[in-house]
Design a protein that fits this description.
Length: 572
Amino acid sequence: MREAHSVEQVRAAEAALMAVLPGGALMQRAAAGLAATCAGLLGRVPGSRVVLLVGSGDNGGDALFAGERLARRGSRVDALLLAPKRAHTAGLAALRAAGGRIHPADAPGFLADAQALVGGADLVLDGIVGIGGRGALRPPADVLAAAAARSRALVVAVDLPSGIDADTGAVAAPPPGPDRAAGPAGLDAPGAAPGPVAGAAEAVEGVGGAWHEAPPRPAGPGLPGAAARGDLTAHGTAAQAPAEGDAHAVFGTGMALTAVRADVTVTFGTYKPGLLVDPGAEYAGVVELVGIGLTPPAPVLRAAQHADVARLLPVPARESDKYARGVLGLVAGSERYPGAAVLATGAALRGGAGAVRYVGPRPVGDAVLAAHPEVLVGDGRVQAYAVGAGLDTGSEARARLATVLDAGVPVLVDADGLTLLAELGKSALARVPGALLTPHAGEAVRLLAGLGLATTRADVEAERLATAAELAAGYGATVLLKGSTTVIADPYGETWANPTGTPYLATAGSGDVLTGLAGALLATGLRPVDAAVCAAYLHGLAGRLASADGVPCAASDVAAAAPRAWAEVRRA
Ligand SMILES: NC(=O)C1=CN([C@@H]2O[C@H](COP(=O)(O)OP(=O)(O)OC[C@H]3O[C@@H](n4cnc5c(N)ncnc54)[C@H](OP(=O)(O)O)[C@@H]3O)[C@@H](O)[C@H]2O)[C@@H](O)CC1
Ligand SMILES: Nc1ncnc2c1ncn2[C@@H]1O[C@H](COP(=O)(O)OP(=O)(O)O)[C@@H](O)[C@H]1O
Ligand SMILES: [K+]
């Protein structure tokens, strides 16, 4: 399991450790781990070209000391000091002593030289800001972040990609204005007002190493799954990329980034939530954790791995029968949307329950039976309900929802069921012993409106953790908020980020498949939060398997791949 801690928790743990260690020891531990990862990525260290982007705080200090270690092993190291007067003094002296070259941002011609160095580097180390960062990158860091994204160098972020919010994963929008001016003293200039934007185009696995079957990224020399930079379009900048060193072209086309896009992030002591949640997770690339001896308290966010899910997945006992394994009642589909019922039942049959009972209009039941003859049709006893996929919002749907919410068993509410729930308000869940709500961002907006809170889809997408927690507390239910990073929050404060998935899951009916899996797991007796964590994980993995080699998949392919996902998890 990956555990993430807030900046406040990291600072407290760091202070406790620093009180009993000699000065500078923590930074040396961090720098040693960082240099070791960089050396592994470079493969051959002597003769390699390493460029350090050095900001004004300890994040820059880490980069300088790691640069010192690489210089001593034969790398050519160039440090670009973005705030020369405030660069880490001891780190600077150490790098100088090891033969590193220092380039202060207030030197004439700095920007053009800096871009040329970044363009020719094998590895760029991003030590601009770490957990002390606030808002968008300031000039000239923003321009150098863009240069790093264009270059063929591997970009390694120190602790976290500069510019992402460590606690939320939000990436600030660029400040308003036609072109961004950059000056030598730019990093000391006032910061931009933060405002989140969605992450850009690259498809990555989110949390590196979580995957036994990594996505098809070209492998770097030393770290399996890490990308060797070769494809400019991966960073969405190739079409506009100006010639290296052409500062005018850079400013003329507004080529600046509000955050660094890393291939690899080396983070210290513990994961930061922003590394596990998009858009930050996408900017972080593959994340490596370097232990520095911190002992932080309970995490604010967790991300499951195969073994965690394997421990939770139900296994039938020797003398189980289908009722003991759990029966899911699926209240889904309508004459208008019969497919949702067919998809959800198909997935539910692969979700570990003993039986799936379909409850709904007769013609839909016939369609379900035609596709899945093993489904029971009609009312009967169940251990959990899943209600809402393709249900419609008319009077019949309302009556069905009311019956389910009164049945005294755990209930998963999805899609149209959520629209109706938002109208009814949280009191509608009063008699449900364990509710699981599975909104996408648009449905989350409606649910928040049901609590009297106005927001937008963009705000939900930028603040996924806060939104899920707010809904969980407001409705007294577990909430699985779907999206490029699916996050899960229960009403007692437990929060998870799902590390599996692929943008190929953005296909019609994919949410119905998730409903089927999660509903079945709920019926087996898992706690709603555990059912949600397992279902999201399996769904993401199944999506990856169904779209292997970049072949688009349909939602029914995702359901069909669920047993393979299950098997892969179990093998762990
Ligand atoms: N915690 C631990 O256990 C350990 C922590 N360690 C390391 O320390 C790091 C934290 O160091 P830190 O506290 O010095 O802050 P840091 O991230 O360098 O940034 C602060 C500076 O950045 C500036 N700045 C802010 N926003 C900006 C922006 N948008 N764009 C540009 N600049 C911006 C800000 O300037 P100001 O706002 O004051 O003008 C200030 O000067 C941590 O991430 C890890 O790497 C390890 O060494 C060992 C163990
Ligand atoms: N860009 C993306 N990356 C990864 N997963 C995604 C992405 N977009 C959507 N998904 C996943 O696909 C599913 C879509 O569900 P939903 O929005 O309910 O679709 P539908 O209503 O068509 O079934 C969710 O599990 C969501 O997390
Ligand atoms: K950084």
